[in-house]
Amino acid sequence: MDYKISSTLNEIMKTKIIFLALVILISVNLVSSFGVSSPYWKGNPLKMARGETRIVNLNLQNNVGDQDVTVKVEIEEGHEIVSLSRDTYRVRAKSLDTMVPVKVKIPVNASEEGYRVIINFHTVAPGEEGTVSFGKAMQVGFMVFPTEEIAETPQLKLNPWIIGIMIVIIIIIVIVIIIIILKKKKKESEQQKNQKNKQIPQTNKV
Description:
- With 206 residues, the chain is an alpha+beta fold.
- The protein has two domains: 33-150, Immunoglobulins (Immunoglobulin-like, Sandwich), CATH 2.60.40; 156-192.
- It has two helices and nine strands, in the order H-E-E-E-E-E-E-E-E-E-H.
- The chain has helices spanning 2-32, 160-199, and strands at 35-37, 46-50, 53-62, 69-77, 82-84, 88-91, 95-105, 115-124, 133-150.
């Protein structure tokens, strides 16, 4: 009886060990199959004018293996100046061009000490995006420093040709309106004249 219980326990332990080994193997494979590149890093900070907003594209790559990878993106530091339009990306196998746009908005009264930005990238189980994570896989970090410049409010600049065309169109519209008004007044004047002529009594000849 004890032998049977011991044998059953051994089988359960073996099953757990095999399952754990498979999970670790899958995790290692997913982690090692993608990479992240950034135009900014510790020794190359992002410098922006105060009040400026900019989009920084982080590049996800999956050039190892033949399987797609689902990656979850999370902001660890820098919530006050950075934001994401979405937090989950599917990176195709053999691809090098999956972009993660990160919106960076620096306040006008930004601190001269700058802001630290850290963004983590986790692999998640296929088909269960955002629910099962295999741990921190990649991390991108850089500093954002404000310059002495103040970002100008973008102004609409029109081509001189466009301005000229618009002026001509406006002149034509004004002329057409004037012509319509004059024709209408002329017509009203003729109608009034006709009505007066009808009201004058005709004299009978003897």
